[in-house]
Protein 1
Amino acid sequence: MNDKPMPAHWIDLASARVGGRALVTNDEFFAGKENLLREADAVFDPHAYTDRGKLMDGWESRRRREDGHDWCVVRLGIPGLVRRVVVDTAFFRGNFPAQCSVDACFVDEVPSLSWLANEAPWQNMVQRTDLQGDCKNAVEVSSSHRVSHLRLNIFPDGGVARLRVHGEAAPDWKELASRGQVDLAALENGGVALSCSDMFFSDRNNLLRPGLSTHMGDGWETKRRRGPGHDWVVVKLGHPGVIERVVVDTSHFKGNAPASCDLDFATDPSASVDDLGRREELWTPLSARRPLIPDNVHEFRVDSRAQAATHVRLRIHPDGGVARLRVFGRVASA
């Protein structure tokens, strides 16, 4: 059960960086539940202790002396379809749980944490499964149900460093369409950066994250180009839509912003990643080449000519970093 590479169209639905939260647990004596969803991998300091024992970068319950098991309820930052759960026991070697299971539900409103823990309509998603210590234990999930919350059960007790919930965003497009103009490319709305020319310094999907960028590493940055050409990224929109406005944000990129950019759009929902990379005829210009200012938010009025765009390609010249890309438009049909 080792961790596998995550397909390009999946994201971590539970990451704290996209709004995931560990809401309630029955026990966090040794280490707090909020560690479970931290984006960075767990770290270990062999000399660090607290007044309760060894400092561990994860969630850890006390040693259970009675029947039962421990659990933690998590709210996904982005409701969606779960494809894989990774229970990472990094650095938990003599204190990891023997087994785990995962329950799931979708709820719009939570009357109380007690109700959520005990009375929510939980359905089993991952059956009771053996765990290995100091390991990324990955379990594939086959489910067509939209999920907003998970309950991680560990048997009987112990520590888990990180919980990763890989899957696809599943927004309520009827509700989003009623708002008028929406960000069709946002991660929370199902957008995903499918491919790019280079992401040496930071991941392409940072472009589509919620909120403002917090530092230079919280964006997409390519290596320094020493030959001809330019860098690019292809984004699949969460839903086809008529694009009206684009934001290219270079915040925090001060000595390494691109000199200029241009954008294209495609209208083929079935186009493969290879097709989008090889077949130039699939692309239609969306914005002419425009200069970019370092550490600045650029907003462009654009026109996809009443066509329902399915993909956007951002080309940066010649290289550099972009913090966020927003693609605002109207949903073609919900």
Protein 2
Amino acid sequence: MEYYLIAALAILGASLLPAFAPPAWSILTYFVLSKNLAAVPLILIGVLMAGLGRFALAHASRALAPRLPATYTKNLENLGSQLEYHREKRWATYGLFFLSPLSSSQLFEAAGFAKYINLTRVTIAFMCGRVITYSAYVLGADHYSGTDFERTIIKSMASPQAVITQAIMIAGLVWLGRITWRQHTMTQNPTAEDPSRA
């Protein structure tokens, strides 16, 4: 039970970091290989802690927004209104969080800055996707058995490709706020239902 708690805290801590954190799948795979933990409860713990950490990260970003340049936050708020009030764009957003081929930390930071995006819904979509990906990694952990797993993970985190990818994601987050997005007309109506608060 102790190792399950340690794994949960490690994944939660990594998921709270805004950038350059070890991927949760690597933590899960480490524990299933080195501590022989049961796969199913470990996967569920990973999904829950990753979702909780990212949800908290998004809310922290939303709380930080008033301290950022007004033009930047306004542009991201307008982007959020477009994504949340257009049905097709809303589902595309959920799909992005479900698949999450990009670094999820920057995705959740952007969602936090984009005021109108419903953080509960994108977190649920993220967690549903992670059930699949974490299951694949944990159940396929035999692939890493007999290898220097720690060195493999450190190499994957510190490799030039990993660092460049994170830098590009951070630059993309800055770039999104520099685009002048148009506010969706429904957000200008004070009596309109706000899906971000549902």
